[in-house]
Structures are given as C-alpha cells and as structure tokens.
Amino acid sequence: MIEVKHLYKSFGDKEVLKDINAVFEDGKTNLIIGQSGSGKTVLMKNLVGLLTPTSGNVLYDGRNFVAMSKEEKVQMRREMGMIFQSAALFDSLNVLENVMFPLDMFSKMNYRERVRRAQECLDRVNLGDAQLKYPGEISGGMQKRVAIARAIVLNPKYLFCDEPNSGLDPHTSLVIDELLSSITKEYNITTIINTHDMNSVMGIGENILFIYQGNNEWQGTKDDVMGATNEKLNDLVFASDLFKRVKEVEMNKIRQAQANR
C-alpha cells in the first residue's frame, strides 16, 4: 500500500500540487486521472522519486520514501516497476534482451536463470514467440507488452504506468488494460496508472483519484463514478455522448430502485 499525506509541490512561485492525500491499495488497479495540466504526472513523479515534494510524505507500506537517504531510495526503487508512455525499449536489443536488462543490472542470477525468468515474463504477456525480434520489428501494442514484461521481471511490489494506452487503438488498449489488471491481481501488486483514457476508468478503475488543478478533487471506484455528483468529474469522464448515455441509464436504474423500496 502506498499512502500520500499532505503532499505539496511547487516550482518557484507556482504551486502545482496542493495538500494531496490518497491511498493506493495492494492488488488493485489504482488510477490517477485529470485534465492536461492538472498535476497528475507531477504526482506520479513525486511518488517514484523523480521529483521531491515541497512538503508532505509518501509512505510505502509505512516506509517514508521522502525521508530516505539516497542509498535507501536506490534500494527502494528495486521494488518498483515502471512502464513509460512510450515503451522506452532499447532499439539495439532484441525483445528478450530488453526484458533481461533489469536482471542484468540488479539480480544475482546466472545467465541461464536470467534467460528463463525473462522468457517466463514474455510468456505471461503472450510474446514468447517474439523474443528474438527487435522493437522496430513489432507493433506498438507488442512493444507495450514487452515493457510490461520488463517491468515485472524483478517481481516488483509496486508498478507505475504512465499513460500505457497512449497511441494505441481501442482494441489494443483493452488488451493492455486487461493484462495490467490480471497481473496486478495475480502478483498482488500495488499498481498505479496515470491515464486520460476513460475506457480504462470504467473498465479497470478499482480505485480512482481525480486531480483537478492540483487538488485531489474526488476518490472512489468505477462503480462510484456512475453515481457521482461531482460536476468536474462528470465533465471529464462523461465528455463523450456514449458515456453520457451510460450514465443516464445507470442513474435511471438507481432512481427506479429507490422508488420501488
């Protein structure tokens, strides 16, 4: 579990995050959503240590990441997996070598063990047959799956995903969502996904934090979204006509159920 307590972040005179308080739960897909410029990317960077909060704390299972020494933070990051907006694969390495890279850097396994572990992770994302291909030879969706395999190869406790569906078609986005959700439950990982994809919100949003102009405006589940009265949240999630109709249908069901009591 990751807890954020009274977190503020400023750049000069500009206050970007204002008293953020949130809990990201084990074994769940925790989503951070918000409009562009809302502060959600800055929040994630504070969580993983790419930025330091102006004030406040980030607790990893009770361990205060902000107060750790540089050496302690390096050790802590070995418990984290990261999936970047662009898959961020090494073009000069084949798929297997890309997944093996964290093992080469941080594990004490011998070469055969590293290969076996990387192959296990590629099999988990259904890419066992692509291990000798290079990033330029596979699709964008396959590259994201390679990135997922690389992110879980060290058995992380915490998995961070920055816009994992960026640039993908709707079907491939659904595949990535389902994969992240199933891996989260299978390994009981604390997964945090920074996303603007409302299909992800309604599909796998077990715990959703809505950031608006640097404030944590709302927090709840995908089911809570359907009955939410927060106008800012509704404007974001139900911007499309399809989602508006879904919301109307669900609200009518709730009203009907209340009337029948």
TrEMBL record:
GO terms for molecular function: ATP binding; ATP hydrolysis activity. Keywords: ATP-binding, Nucleotide-binding, Transport. InterPro entries: AAA+_ATPase, ABC_transporter-like_ATP-bd, ABC_transporter-like_CS, P-loop_NTPase. It holds the Pfam family ABC_tran. It comes from the Bacteria. Residues 2-238 form the ABC transporter domain. SMART domains: AAA (SM00382). Coiled coil: none annotated. PANTHER family: INTERMEMBRANE PHOSPHOLIPID TRANSPORT SYSTEM ATP-BINDING PROTEIN MLAF, PROTEIN TRIGALACTOSYLDIACYLGLYCEROL 3, CHLOROPLASTIC. This is ATP-binding cassette domain-containing protein. It comes from Leyella stercorea. The lineage of its organism: Bacteria, Pseudomonadati, Bacteroidota, Bacteroidia, Bacteroidales.
